[in-house]
């Protein structure tokens, strides 16, 4: 049975939330019938800075003619662990929360089926997977976190950074690699690597000290965080999937809104948040690679000089086999038969895979 850890200091965290949102200067001040406390994903990354924060602090309040006001921050600015966002959301500590689905799998193993490594390699297919998986996500968030799903959007493809020369996936044999989620760890182990669980902001120091040899994250995320200073080679295969971020609203809060408010919020999210993020994802991976390697234009700043390792057909085949033989069966053992059935009838059809019940 999955057990959720309960928040230890709710009153303290509530005070932090209030102080952070007011201090951030993003609180809308017009009086309104509906006010939303919003906690976004990693505050230092493009998804929050260019999409989450502007949507919740500006776009939605404007679309509502000031009838919806918001207070916006991110979980790292609040000091919340990424895996605790939906726990706090379900408890009603804030109204809207965003975090990577993979961060929550200790509570909701169903969500792993959204982002299994190397399930898709193109953004169009990744979006089809997100849409197919949404009913499973909605059930999981509702049942486990008392929350309602509003959106599923990606970070760029989660690629491989190494501080030692590599020529392909075969060179991961015996290396220590930071993954981003349980399924990614299982995938890396299937390739002969040793998977380590290290927080995103601790990766540069770990690479620099040789604690790990390689690490997985989005190309632009790695550039923004300066991983090029402590790694030399980048392999642009999405071996960590897409790190989908789920946006959800507390179910009690959602049900307290009238039908017109619900329709407005969902329509604005679909058109002004979800669509732009997916459009950006199509190019962000390549922009990140260009910034990391200098091969192409880097709109984000000065390009680094990492070595680009071109994936081979053998790399793709080996990755797909690891997914089919190890990762997918392992996930199937952690969920119930109904989840497997739903997944096979939806996501499985998109990616031409079948999960078998244990």
TrEMBL record:
Protein name, UniProt field: C4-dicarboxylate ABC transporter substrate-binding protein
InterPro entries: DctP_fam, TRAP_DctP_sf
Pfam family, one: DctP
PANTHER family according to UniProt: PTHR33376, SIALIC ACID-BINDING PERIPLASMIC PROTEIN SIAP
GO biological process entries: transmembrane transport
Highest taxon of source: Bacteria
Native source organism of the sequence: Kushneria marisflavi
Signal peptide interval: none
């Amino acid at each position: 049975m999955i057990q959720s850890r309960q928040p230890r200091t709710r009153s303290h965290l509530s005070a932090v939330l209030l102080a952070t949102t007011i201090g951030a200067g993003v609180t809308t001040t017009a009086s309104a019938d509906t006010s939303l406390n919003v906690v976004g994903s990693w505050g230092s990354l493009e998804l929050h800075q260019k999409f989450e924060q502007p949507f919740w602090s500006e776009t939605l309040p404007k679309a509502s003619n000031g009838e919806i006001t918001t207070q916006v921050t991110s979980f790292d600015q609040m000091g919340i662990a990424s895996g605790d966002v939906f726990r706090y959301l379900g408890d009603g500590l804030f109204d809207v929360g965003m975090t990577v689905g993979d961060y929550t799998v200790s509570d909701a193993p169903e969500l792993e089926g959204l982002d299994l490594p190397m399930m898709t390699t193109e953004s169009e297919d990744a979006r089809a997977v997100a849409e197919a998986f949404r009913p499973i996500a909605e059930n999981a968030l509702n049942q486990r976190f008392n929350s309602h799903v509003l959106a599923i959007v990606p970070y760029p493809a989660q690629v491989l950074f190494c501080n030692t020369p590599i020529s392909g996936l075969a060179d991961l044999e015996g290396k220590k690699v930071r993954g981003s989620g349980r399924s990614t760890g299982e995938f890396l182990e299937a390739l002969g690597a040793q998977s380590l669980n290290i927080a995103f902001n601790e990766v540069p120091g770990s690479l620099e000290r040789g604690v790990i040899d390689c690490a997985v994250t989005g190309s632009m995320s790695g550039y923004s965080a300066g991983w090029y200073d402590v790694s030399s080679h980048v392999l642009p295969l999405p071996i960590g999937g897409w790190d989908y971020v789920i946006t959800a609203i507390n179910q009690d809060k959602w049900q307290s809104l009238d039908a017109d408010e619900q329709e407005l919020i969902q329509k604005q999210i679909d058109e002004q948040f979800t669509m732009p993020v997916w459009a950006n994802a199509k190019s962000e991976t390549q922009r990140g690679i260009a910034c990391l390697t200098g091969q192409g234009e880097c709109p984000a700043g000065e390009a680094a000089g990492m070595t680009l390792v071109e994936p081979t057909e053998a790399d793709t085949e080996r990755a797909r086999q690891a997914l089919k033989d190890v990762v997918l069966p392992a996930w199937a053992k952690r969920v119930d038969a109904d989840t497997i059935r739903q997944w096979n009838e939806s996501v499985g059809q998109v990616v031409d895979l079948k999960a078998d019940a244990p």
